[in-house]
Design brief:
Radius of gyration of chain A: 28 Å
Largest sheet of chain C: 4 strands, parallel
Oligomer: heterotrimer
Number of strands of chain A: 31
Strand content of chain A: 15-25%
Strand order of the largest sheet of chain A: 15-14-27-26-25-16-17
CATH superfamily of one domain in chain C: NADH-ubiquinone oxidoreductase 51kDa subunit
Chains: A alpha/beta, B alpha+beta, C alpha/beta
Shape of chain A: globular
Helix content of chain A: 25-40%
Order of helices and strands of chain C: HHHHEHHEHEHEHHEEEHEHEHEHHHHH
Structural class of chain C: alpha/beta
Number of helices of chain A: 28
CATH class of the largest domain in chain A: Alpha Beta
Number of domains of chain A: 4
Largest sheet of chain A: 7 strands, mixed
Structural class of chain A: alpha/beta
Shape of chain C: globular
CATH topology of one domain in chain C: Rossmann fold
Number of strands of chain C: 10
Bound molecules: flavin mononucleotide, iron/sulfur cluster, FE2/S2 (inorganic) cluster
Chain lengths: ~800, ~160, ~450
């Protein structure tokens, strides 16, 4: 659809304003600072005109008009504030309050309720009614969704967000008149994607969250905007936190302020799956193996044990004695630090992480054309999208939502190529159902190889349909091609090359975890330095690190695990990863390997370790993360768990005990080693307190060796593609980075990419520790929900 | 088959008159109810499938229309209008009379399942008030005495 | 089924075939049926519309909008199919005329649809009949089958090159579905929630196509207008209020019934001559002029007014749907207001706040008030609530609930005062227990 840019001028309350033709009066007013109240109007959802709060007087119109349905017109004269208008709104609230329970003191929405706000504004305090209010018991619709019928004002926002935005259609309106009621799809309960969008969009406290209800009052929480720890989309989430016995507890997640790339969207994981943070199984103190058993130990004992063994092994075996495995859920700064530590302190290129996408091949293919990488934001408005592989509804819920919204609101054309039926197919213009091993052939077909067409055609999609789809695709001049892990290596290269021959094509490569992309970008590869820099081009890094870096490629994850099993890897350092579960290594199978693990839980891997350090998670620290589209965002500490420390601090402390000057790892300005005080909570050390003050003053603190911003500085200076705008980043916005390796990145062994295959209701090892995630029925049906739609 | 084949065939034949499948939903609901006595879960599932709607959506529609129901009523559903024209000519008396005679109240069914009673809104018999509809049959210009006769006739018909 | 009545003042246009078995097509043809269709097939669309404009026919559904003008709003060209939709939802309390037309003269409605379609370029028509009128659906289905068999409906109607389909449809109990946009929603298989306007149905209607929506009586008048010519039809009524209409006389009159009288017929004569006056020689207290949604008239007002659209709109009131309900001196106006409000509370679709909550509060307050539990401020509250519904709701149902209530409180305020302070209703020997409408 073509954007209408023609401006229309009108007068509202004597003020001249203008807005693009077609804008709704309510939006035009809002943009000009004139707030018109509404319950049912919600930008991006279908119009209802049901609540009648937005009434205004428009000259030459006989009745008051609803500003939510009237488009601006040239010369329109509007009165939005007058006795008549105020009276109409007041009466509407009075009538509404007549049947509304006045249980604000115990209502979850108290303090955040649009009905309260409007009553405050229009002063409908006098009660004209004598009859009793209808009472109904609260209903539980799912572990996460509760419904308090009497509080519902029937604005239909929940019904619309569920249907129009989520394409789930699990809520309906039943009965009529004053008996009208919002009803869930299963009669007395809901079966849905459990995204909780309905709860956040509810202007009152009718829909409440199972995770949050009756826990606290909104004003008793601190609200921290940070990034979700789950999938690679990197939604911004605002966490409500309050003091707990052992730190700070996260009690709520939402993004009601619509800031960030995801607007108000969050899926079940972003909204509720923060509860691992206070899981009773969390590690509260270091564990050291004694007499074959992991036993609680002091921090000093743990660090000493590690430092001694690491130093000894370095002495004896050099860098080859170490294997380092990083995380897809730690921050960029931590990942960067880990590779720096591995390469410059341990002296090894044996470093890797759980790969879920072929980012190196993507970087190599895009080299020199960073502008061809699509941001998540590109999906909002691009006129056409080609999705190859992946199931975004499950693996990239925000991407799926962005695509649906684009199709719904802007008429974007969606083309899907997959070996399965996806829910997104309902939005697609064309759908090619290909064999599971047909992705490479499809790319060849796209490139003009008609010979493979017959191999691609199957019972579902025939040759003509494939041809027609290719023809349509060739006609698209602004196309975003987004692909999953099905496309890797040579195929990926061919696809990107093909796209490059057209103008207006952009690409996105889908990886699975919250900072998978960051792990890749920060060089957690045996053969690539940060920014996909080949080992041979280590110049800048070597100069900065002041050390000679190992020259030859190290072992990849699989080789390291094999070596450890074979007794050929004397030490392994695992940060926030669970490789032993993935490779199905059993306890006792590792031989002569000193294993150090930093994690939140005693995972399969941690259970084998010699030293386990309790780590903080991404909700408990600061730093940055990069989503799978390369959008960089800031991570802020919200929760706090006594006993755990951020991985960054743990790495610095290990290095410190090994005798390495912290400053050589973290360029923390004028601070001294004495700044290594406590780093968490209200009892944090001088450095941290100072840092808080500095942040408040708008100054970037770099005064502590645990300060991620000191590392961010270095990343910005050294890592290709990370020349982002600090101003925007620190303002809480997402900023694009560009995968742009210097020259050609290494080809990865495609076999090393293991997609996580998470569903909406799982999240790797982390998901096991979210009670909420495991509590919903959809997680346990044995089949996938939403069920895949028919493919033919 | 939840409904008779004849009815299903009728549905299948008439549906193409509309550009969308769901358009025929309201009549289908009513005719299904006529056959089954009420809209059972099975009937709802059947109609949802037939119209390619979710069962929720079908229920949303059912609950909007006052003639549609998901619980059975009596064999003879006595619907007494008490709206203005009937009110002025004794509709309330007829309603009270029926309550008394049948021993049931609004939307209730007699123990033997023969009669059910409902106070309804204007049924379009204003000039022949007071009026009652039993199932789809109109009975007009009623008095309590005539009403007795009407009920008696139905009772004998069962 | 319903009894037919007669009065010498009647001008039988629409009702001319009533009681003659014209539901059967042979009789209908013998009485001149489908001649107008043949005539219209030979006319240009604009000629048909002009004839209807000349006839000064105004919608019989309640709003009285000039039919010819409504038709002329339909765009000539349309990418989507156009439709004629006949509103046979007849549920306005006091109104029972469409029922007679569909029972006695269904072919006139079918013929009217065909002519309307020729006028606006529609080739499909739907006749929506309320669910309670099942016997009419059966009559209509039979009539449609006959008309199809005789070539008036279907492919190449009357041997012309016009294909025209007319279908029946039925509701399932909902007054609100009579509102034109809710009617379309219902016909599309949805809950009867009205649509946002604009766009108006003439431009975007059924399934997105331009749609003409007319009342059964309006459509039934069309063949007669084509046959006799618009000018002749117009001449039955006063200027701009063409023709005759079916008045449904009910309540406290000696001869209730449906009478076809020219528009502009004096209300007083309607009650006392046509209706034979009030039983027991009682005095008149009030008149509902056109269904429960209209302003009630006091005896003085009723005395001087003629039953045409403009006489009423000159007073800022409405002639309505033809349902004339007469109330004698012994009627309790509070109880009457309560019964009306119960109806609207029951029928509100629930979409918008002022109507959904307002009708419920008014019903509750009036119930308590009539039962003797009223307090002083209730009277003003009732007025306040209805005034704040008027013009504030999504569709006119809110207005329809507010209008009679406001007029009763204003014109019979003394009766409210008589109910105050714990006294039981002073106008009736007993207070009916509140009927338990769900
Ligand atoms: C609440 C409500 C109920 C209505 N019910 C009916 C009805 O039952 N029959 C009818 O013909 N018009 C009814 N109308 C009027 C219709 O909306 C519409 O104006 C009419 O069908 C147009 O036809 P006409 O121009 O021939 O009168 C109703 C309007 C409202 C607001
Ligand atoms: S006024 Fe509002 S609630 Fe009432 S029927 Fe119309 S839309 Fe529905
Ligand atoms: S916002 Fe306009 S009516 Fe609700």
């Amino acid at each position: 659809m073509v954007e209408n840019t023609q401006l229309v001028s009108l007068t509202v309350d004597g003020k001249k304003i203008s807005a693009p033709a077609g804008t709704l009066l309510i939006d035009a007013c809002k943009a000009s600072g004139i707030e018109i109240p509404s319950f049912c109007y919600y930008p991006g959802l279908s119009l209802q005109a049901a609540c009648r709060m937005c009434v205004v007087r428009i000259d030459k119109m006989p009745k008051l008009q609803t500003a939510c349905t009237v488009p601006v017109a040239e010369g329109m004269v509007v009165t939005s504030e007058s006795d008549e208008v105020r009276q109409a709104r007041k009466a509407t609230i009075e009538i509404l309050l007549g049947n509304h329970p006045l249980d604000c003191p115990v209502c979850d929405a108290g303090g955040e309720c649009e009905l309260q706000d409007m009553t405050f504004t229009y002063g409908a305090a006098e009660s004209r009614f004598m009859e009793a209010k209808a009472h109904k018991e609260e209903q539980q619709w799912s572990p996460v969704v509760f419904f308090d019928r009497p509080r519902c004002i029937l604005c239909y926002r929940c019904v619309r967000v569920c249907g129009e935005v989520m394409d789930v259609w699990a809520l309906g309106v039943q009965n009529r008149g004053v008996n009208s009621v919002i009803a869930p799809n299963m009669g007395d309960h809901l079966e849905c994607e459990e995204c909780g969008q309905c709860i956040d969009i509810c202007p009152v406290g009718a829909l409440t969250s199972g995770a949050y209800r009756y826990k606290t009052r909104p004003w008793e929480m601190n609200h921290v905007g940070t990034v979700c720890t789950h999938c690679g989309d990197g939604c911004k989430t605002t966490l409500g936190v309050r003091r707990a016995d052992n730190g700070m507890e996260i009690v709520r997640g939402d993004n009601r302020d619509k800031s960030g790339i995801n607007g108000d969207f969050l899926c079940i994981k972003g909204r509720y799956a923060f509860d691992f943070q206070q899981h009773p199984d969390r590690l509260k103190q270091p564990l050291v193996r004694k007499d074959g058993k992991l036993k609680p130990a002091t921090w000093d004992e743990a660090f000493d044990t590690i430092a001694k063994r690491f130093n000894a092994i370095r002495e004896q075996h050099g860098g080859a004695g170490f294997g380092v495995i990083g995380s897809t859920r730690t921050t960029n700064e931590e990942n960067y630090l880990l590779q720096k530590f591995a390469r410059s302190v341990l002296g090894t290129n044996n470093i890797d992480h759980h790969r879920t996408a072929d980012y190196p091949a993507f970087a190599a293919a895009l080299a020199g054309k960073p502008e061809m990488a699509a941001s998540l934001r590109d999906f909002e408005k691009t006129p056409a999208i080609l999705l190859i592989g992946n199931d975004p509804t499950h693996q990239h819920p925000m991407l799926a939502t962005a695509i649906r919204n684009n199709v719904r609101l802007h008429g974007a054309k969606l083309f899907i190529v997959n070996h399965e039926g996806l829910k997104l197919r309902r939005q697609s213009k064309a759908y090619a159902h290909i064999p599971k091993d047909g992705y490479g052939k499809f790319i060849a077909f796209l490139g003009g190889d008609d010979a493979v067409a017959s191999a691609l055609a199957n019972g579902h999609t025939n040759r003509e349909q494939l041809m027609a789809m290719r023809e349509m695709l060739r006609g698209e001049h602004q196309l975003v091609i987004v692909f999953g892990a099905e496309v890797r290596g040579k195929d990926l290269e061919t696809l990107v090359k093909l796209g490059m021959s057209h103008t207006g094509v952009k690409f996105a490569c889908l990886g699975d975890y919250a900072n998978s992309r960051g792990a890749a970008d920060m060089g957690l590869y045996p053969d690539l330095l940060p920014g996909f820099t080949p080992l041979a081009d280590a110049g800048d890094f070597a100069a900065e690190y002041g050390a000679s870096l190992p020259k030859s490629a190290g072992m990849d994850l699989e080789k390291m695990v094999d070596a450890a099993k074979a007794g050929k890897l004397p030490a392994m350092f695992v940060v926030g990863a669970n490789p032993m579960a993935r490779y199905n290594v059993q306890l006792g199978e590792l031989k002569n390997c000193f294993l150090v693990v930093q994690d939140m839980f005693l995972t399969e891997t941690a259970a084998m370790a010699d030293v386990v350090l309790p780590a903080a998670n991404a909700y408990e620290k600061s730093g940055t993360m990069t989503n799978t589209y390369g959008d960089l965002q800031i991570v802020r500490p919200a929760g706090d768990f006594a006993g755990a420390k951020p991985d960054l601090e743990l790495i610095v402390r290990i290095a410190d005990r090994m005798g390495v000057a912290p400053q050589s790892l973290v360029p923390f300005g004028r601070g001294t080693r004495a700044d290594m005080g406590q780093s968490r909570g209200a009892q944090s050390g001088e450095a941290d307190r100072h840092a808080i003050w500095m942040v408040a003053q708008g100054i970037e603190p770099k005064v502590s060796p645990f300060d991620p911003q000191a590392l961010l500085d270095e990343i910005q200076r050294l890592v290709p593609g990370y020349g982002f705008s600090r101003l925007n980043l620190f303002a809480g916005n997402d900023v694009p980075t560009h995968t742009a390796g210097k020259g050609k990145g290494a080809h990865q062994d495609p076999e090393l990419i293991w997609p996580a295959n998470d569903t909406l209701f799982t999240s790797g090892t982390l998901g096991r520790y979210s009670n909420t995630l495991n509590s919903v029925v959809e997680a346990h049906e044995g089949k996938r929900y939403p069920t895949q739609v028919e493919t033919d | 088959m939840v409904i008779s084949e004849k009815l299903d065939r009728f549905f299948t034949e008439k549906m193409p008159e509309y550009p969308t499948k769901r358009s025929f939903l309201v009549p289908m609901l009513l005719y299904t109810q006529d056959e089954l006595g009420c809209l059972t879960d099975e009937a709802i599932a059947y109609l949802a499938k037939k119209t390619e709607l979710t069962e929720l959506e079908v229920r949303n529609v059912i609950s909007y229309y006052s003639m549609l129901r998901t619980k059975p009523m009596g064999k003879f559903h006595v619907q007494v209008c008490t709206n203005i024209s009937c009110q002025l000519r004794g509709g309330d008396e007829i309603y009270e009379h029926c309550k008394h005679k049948l021993g049931i109240g609004h939307k209730q069914t007699t123990a033997d399942g023969v009669f059910s009673l409902e106070e309804v809104e204007c049924i379009g018999a204003c000039s022949w008030a007071p009026a009652v509809q039993v199932n789809y049959d109109f009975h007009e210009n009623l008095t309590p005495g005539k009403m007795d006769k009407v009920l008696e006739d139905y009772r004998n018909r069962k | 089924m319903a009894d037919l009545v007669q009065h010498p003042d009647e001008v039988r246009v629409i009702s001319q075939r009533f009681g003659k078995g014209a539901a059967g097509i042979e009789t209908y043809l013998a009485l001149g049926g489908y001649q107008s269709l043949r005539k219209a097939l030979g006319m240009k669309p604009d000629e048909i519309i002009n004839e209807v404009k000349t006839s000064a026919l105004r919608g019989r559904g309640g709003a009285g909008f000039p039919t010819g003008m409504k038709w002329s709003f339909v765009p000539k060209e349309s990418a989507k199919p156009k439709y004629i939709l006949v509103n046979g939802d007849e549920s306005e309390p006091g109104t029972c005329k469409d029922r007679l037309i569909l029972e006695h003269d269904p072919h006139a409605v079918i013929e009217g649809v065909l002519i309307a379609g020729l006028a606006v370029g529609a080739r499909q028509g739907f006749i929506y009949v309320r669910g309670e009128y099942r016997y009419l659906v059966d009559i209509l289905r039979k009539a449609l089958d006959e008309a199809r068999a005789k070539g008036f409906v279907g492919k190449k109607i009357c041997g012309s090159d016009v294909d025209f389909e007319v279908y029946w449809h039925t509701g399932a109990g909902a007054y609100e579905v009579g509102e034109e946009s809710a009617l379309m929603e219902s016909l599309e298989g949805k809950r009867g929630i009205p649509r946002i306007r604009p766009p108006f149905p003439a431009v975007v209607g059924l399934w997105g196509g331009p749609t003409v929506i007319n009342n059964v009586e309006t459509i039934a008048a069309i063949p007669h207008i084509i046959e006799m010519g618009g000018a002749k039809y117009a001449s039955y009524g006063p200027p701009k209020n063409g023709g005759t209409r079916l008045f449904c006389l009910s309540g406290h009159v000696n001869k209730p019934g449906v009478y076809e009288l020219p528009l502009g017929y004096p209300m007083k004569k309607l009650i006392y001559e046509v209706g034979g006056g009030i039983p027991g020689g009682k005095k008149l207290k009030a008149v509902v002029p056109g269904g429960s949604s209209t302003f009630l008239l006091t005896p003085d007002e009723a005395d001087g007014i003629n039953c045409d659209f403009d006489s009423f709109s000159a007073r800022g009131e409405f002639l309505g749907s033809g349902g004339v309900v007469v109330l004698d001196e012994d009627t309790c106006m509070v109880n009457f207001a309560l019964r009306i409000m119960k109806f609207y509370q029951h029928e509100s679709c629930g979409w918008c706040i002022p109507c959904r909550e307002g009708t419920d509060w008014l019903k509750k307050t009036l119930t308590r008030f009539h039962a003797g539990g009223g307090v002083d401020k209730d009277i003003d509250n009732i007025l306040y609530l209805s005034q704040n519904m008027l013009g504030r709701t999504f569709c006119p149902l809110g207005d329809a609930a507010a209008i009679p209530t406001m007029s009763i409180v204003k014109k019979w305020r003394n009766e409210f005062e008589d109910h105050l302070h714990g006294k039981p209703c002073p106008y009736e020997s007993r207070v009916w227990p509140e009927p338990a409408l769900a």
